[in-house]
Amino acid sequence: MAEDAVAEELDITDELIAERRAGRPGETPPDMTPWMRPVVAVIDTINLWAGRIICLLMIPLILSIVFEVFSRNMFAILTQNGMSDVAIDWGFGPTLWVYDVSRMLGGVLFMAAAGYALMRGVHIRADFLYRGWSAKTQATVDATLYLAFYIPAMLFFTWVSAEYWLKAFWSGEQASDSTWAPVLWPARLAMPLGAFLLLLQGIPELFRAFHQMGRARERIFLRILPFYLVVLALITLGVFFPNVLPLGDLWEGIFGAGPGVDKPVIGLIMLAAMLFAIFVGFPISFTLIFLGFVFGTWGANFKLATFLMTLQTNSVMLSDQLVAVPLFIFMGIVMEQAGLMERLFQAVQMMMSRTRGALFIAVLFVSTIFAAATGIVGASVTILGIMAARTMNRSGYDVRLAAGTITAGGTLGILIPPSIMLIVMGPVLEVPVTDLFRAAILPGVMLAGLYLLYALGRCWLNPDMGPILPPEEQPETSNYYLLEVVLVMAALVFLIWLITRGIVAGFGFPLGAIVVPLAWIGVMYAAYSWLDRARPGGFYFSPLWYEFFMGLVPPTVLIAFALGSILAGWATPAEASACGAFGAVLLSMLYRKFTIPGLYDALIKSLEITVLIMFLVAASNFFGAVFSNLGTPKMLTELLLSLDMSPVLVLILIMALIFLLGWPLEWVPIVLIIVPILIPTVTSLDLGFATESDLLIWFAILVAVNLQTAWLSPPVALSAYFLKGVVPEWDLRDIYLGMMQFMVIQVIGLVLIFLFPMIALWLPHFTYGP
């Protein structure tokens, strides 16, 4: 039953982790081949401790960035008030070292923990076909692809990245894009280390596949294994030591582009191989690395392929924008652990208890607020289901409309900033993440409003779909409840205005943007306390308003300052994410939810999701660089533009393609693999935009809303399975039918943004001016 589900006992960290290993690291079945068991246990333990240690790097990452923000702003405040000497004496001011240290720590986080992530089973695979196969077939395919794809790719990756690190070590190479200019070899060490741990972890994964396929098939693979190792060793020697083993002619014969094979055609074959390998179900990152090596060598040469691999991986590791990914993930997980979502839901439910469809309002209100705290759809849908389903069932709510509201509200985190998807999409499109955040706010609010109008409209047409809560569940209020609502809403609107004014213009004195909103909160609390004691004329504020305030204001203020500082240009996304993560920890302390085990759990879960996303970013960048070098995107663009179709029709076809791919694939491979292929075509379309930047921002929001729609579209629609897991009494067919209603609304929202681009572009234009 839904009421028996406990959020803390559910593994809902991220919707992308579909195959997380449930057993303990190093645990092996008793009937596994005896000599394999200690090998699996030792390697699993090595990567387990690597992950446990590396996740702790998130703490100095957060603290260093918070120190930079504090030091820089204190220097600015003191200087503006004629106290520059004091600021200098106290050591305030911009630092030279935080920029480099933070991006290096961010790179080490995902790269060095890649083997841990594989051990935990969190590298993403498209299991649309894979999940339907028998366990023996899955294991046979896995073992074949580990031998054919994974081990050669990771061996080459380890070797090439080790050479890249050694070059930096011996030459003393320094960062050329920063004032501090630190040596790079300490951070680059994470590349060969992470690749080696991945190569090492491939052995237990291969042995597990051997065990799962059964003794008969295992014996066949074990007979082949010695010959495979000999061939692999010969190929490796031929590639890296051609003077020792001259296999150059053979290598060119296998991979050299023969007469008549144009590079763009090789790219098409590469694309087809990628789609085939992804749908077979092998982890996507490793498939992309292998194909990048093979087709890069075929279309050019092995030296160019290795150069692109190290260049792209190093670029992702030192990206100052992508540092925000682990920190926003950590912020969302900590806020979820603090229980603020449940507290706010209960308060809104009670506040609207005399309104038809009150629970729909509560679900959508809470999901919109927490979409700005965590973009983790699985967590949002699951917790909303746990909180709302029992009351909805008891109150006689329509199951289909209830299921649609919960799943649609849970998907808002994909779009509403600080969306992890937009952070990843920014570098892909070469558009500032801050512009994407600005562009996503109005579409996100519009979609939430459309959901709400639809749910309340259905309740207005048929009151039985969302009855008023039973009298025994309605809270006690004063006889002036409407006045209570008006005063509270007015006070909160004024608070939001104060926060906005403070961020944009300040209040004319140091720290005014913080002091004034806090002072107003104090005034609100004092008025609440006095009215509760005096009750003039029988008027007082119901206790539910205290719960509403405590559930809404702290997270809202934290989110507003984190996002506001980005939108106002006060802080970069990385700086805002670090301050948000730090603030989330403080909130969990204030709500007495903070524990050391809870903090560690948030760190390790954040690490897992970070590796999942960031390693795929690096792999897809390598794949994309090879693909672009072959010239295939240019050929596809020219082909599409040569067709007798209008630019609008071409864009509609692109949106339809993304929508269809959103069924079997998650947003990560679509954003990182498919979107880069489509960008040259999109930028070549004459759609009437003044600048290419506007076009790409608008296109990014269309893609984001499109992929959000795919979350609600059967047959895959993972949101349905998350909800079914915590509300088993709801029939999956009813959940699907409820989701499809909101999918139609989502499509309407997509069409509106398509027809009226200023829905997405107005706020960026307003921010920058004409």
Tell me how many strands there are. 0
Terminal Cα span: 56 Å
Uncertain regions spanning at least 5 consecutive residues: 1-19
Approximate shape: globular
Domain module tally? 2
Contiguous helical run count: 32
Structural class: mainly alpha
Helix content range? over 70%
Mean pLDDT: 81
Radius of gyration: 27 Å
Largest β-sheet summary: none
Question: What portion of the residues fall into strands of 2 or more residues?
Answer: under 5%
Task: Report on the architecture of this protein.
It is a single chain. The chain is mainly alpha-helical and 770 residues long. The chain has 2 domains: 36-317, no CATH class; 325-474 and 592-770, no CATH class. It has 32 helices and no strands. It has helices spanning 36-54, 58-80, 84-89, 98-112, 114-120, 135-171, 185-188, 190-213, 215-240, 248-255, 263-280, 284-299, 302-317, 324-337, 340-351, 358-371, 377-394, 399-410, 420-429, 433-461, 481-504, 512-534, 543-567, 573-590, 596-629, 632-642, 647-661, 667-684, 692-710, 718-726, 732-755, 758-768. α12 (284-299) runs antiparallel to α13 (302-317) and α20 (433-461) crosses α29 (692-710). The protein is globular and about 95 Å long. Mean pLDDT is 81; it is low at 1-19.
